[in-house]
Amino acid sequence: VIVVAVFQFGSMAYNYGHAVFEEEALDEPPGRTITVDVEEGSSTMDIAKLLEHEGLVADWKLFYIQILCSKYAKTMEPGTYELSTAMKPRELMAVMSGEEVELEWEQEET
Q1: Which residues contact 7 (CB under 8 A, 6 or more apart)?
Q2: Which of 7, 22, 32, 93 has the greatest number of beta carbons closer than 10 A?
């Protein structure tokens, strides 16, 4: 019983850890464009929760860990952003950090 529990926990931990570094968008291009307002004083955790609430990421906890493991952990800024459900996590972070992100598709407005 203990061996099975340890195996299941290890498998779950591996899958979650793998997902942190896996770059997958929610939708295939072109996705949907969603306007997001990041308020002054928002923490990275607040931003992760906001993006899940707005339908841009599936799991705010996973996105939060991805932020912490990225170069964008301290660079995301308040503002209004046009984001797409076809953007990968790193692209979402880059846009909110003021970087230019070139998309190769036309986005649908929502």
Answers
A1: none
A2: 93
